[in-house]
Amino acid sequence: MDDEDVVDIAMEMDFPRIVIGPHIKDEKLGPPRKSRTSCLIMDSYTLKSVSDLPDANMVISAPTGSGKTVLFELCILRLLSKFISEGRFVHLKGMLKTIYIAPSKALVQEKLRDWTQKFGSLGINCLELTGDNEFYNTRTILEADIILTTPEKFDAVTRYRIKDGGLSFFSDIGLLLIDEVHLLNDPRGAALEAIVSRIKMLAHNLEMKSSPLSCVRFLAVSATIPNIEDLAEWLNVPVQGIKRFGEEMRPVKLTTKVFGYAPAKNDFLFEKRLQNYIFDILMQYSRGKSALVFCSTRKGAQEAAQKLSQTAMTFGYSNPFIKDKEQQERLREASLSCSDKQLQSYILYGVGYHNGGLCLKDRSLIEGLFLKGDIKILCTTNTLAHGINLPAHTVVIKSTQHLYVKKLS
């Protein structure tokens, strides 16, 4: 973007900073208006990734927390720059769409909140297409500028629900963002593969020659892409668009500890036995800070939370997961708004669980309590492993057997 009223590039503390605003011009609104200023802080790898090929397809593998979301946002801004005409931002609602695809509803909803806040001042309309949101129709889909969805939902809407938008908006797609693209190697990857193949096929249709879809841009990112070259070939990514960054780019270095325990008579008993070790490990390594406990199943996450809350209960007023009366009172008030009775009782002890079986309201409640530090221990399945921004001091992976079985099968 060249217009200085829309994007100002500055340098501060050796980090390039992209500032959206503070003046945004809109033909419909008349004179320039003040807008909330948003900042995107980029490190050197992020800047290099977008500056080398500003309009090309890209596949990027980089560690968690190294700025992949910022790359998505810069690509969205690059697409929006096509609305700049003679120094004015002329936004045509829904005429140039970005499709963001993530593997979980929780990740979609996190990005929805973030991007609605960041791009809302530009008049950009974000729409969630997941199983948690049925309040959409042909009009809302056509008027959306950024559609955030899961592979299964987007595949269903475009394949079966023609009356609710269907393929009618495909010609307006100018950018496809694929988060956690390693999902392709998962049984659920078939839906994502079908979506990308459908978009690629329609993009080459002669009837789409003058539409944004004819030159649609693909950006796929993940922390783990073992066959990045194969993926790049499939997405028509030039060699310069393949970016692979190692652990040296991780903003916070990790310390890894591995503990082995004697096997049990069967897998079920072994999983049960592991519950007994989690509390001591948390006491030794989390030191009163936030911790995530990853379990292989929803039931396993619930049982781990139950065991931890029962152990915390035995400490009485010395519960290690609760610092003071103020935190205790906040947890008590929060528990009253939780619809899951089992989870409600765990919250009182500073413990929670998170999985795809919780309703949207309860998931949002738990995420908020964990982010604020009121819930110290969160037991979860892999729903939180797909890029959701819930920083933790300590991460416990309870049993790697599920990972090994998947790898060997």
From TrEMBL:
Keywords attached to this entry: ATP-binding, Nucleotide-binding
Highest taxon above the source species: Eukaryota
Signal peptide positions (record): none
Molecular function GO terms recorded: 3'-5' DNA helicase activity; ATP binding; hydrolase activity; nucleic acid binding
SUPFAM superfamilies recorded: P-loop containing nucleoside triphosphate hydrolases
Transmembrane domains' residue ranges: none
One Pfam family of this chain: DEAD
All residue ranges annotated as the Helicase ATP-binding domain in the record: 49-243
InterPro entries, A to Z: DEAD/DEAH_box_helicase_dom (IPR011545), Helicase_ATP-bd (IPR014001), Helicase_C-like (IPR001650), Meiotic_Crossover_Helicase (IPR052247), P-loop_NTPase (IPR027417)
Positions of the Helicase C-terminal domain: 277-409
Keyword Nucleotide-binding belongs to the record: yes
PANTHER family per record: HELICASE FOR MEIOSIS 1, HFM1, ATP DEPENDENT DNA HELICASE HOMOLOG
Name of the protein: Uncharacterized protein
Species annotation: Dovyalis caffra
Lineage: Eukaryota, Viridiplantae, Streptophyta, Embryophyta, Tracheophyta
